[in-house]
Please model this.
Amino acid sequence: MLKEVTVDRVYLAQGVTDLRKSIDGLVALVKEEFELDLFLRVYLFFVTGDETS
Model:
């Protein structure tokens, strides 16, 4: 069953991100680059574009 989730903020991380990193690597990126607390109620989306365009 799906539960309703309350989210305070949504962040879009624009640029090249290596999504092959482990979850630990992505967590370190969020903590260091975005200075976000990982226990906040936020969504973080990694948005990358085609490098040839």
User: Anything to note?
Assistant: The radius of gyration is 13 Å.
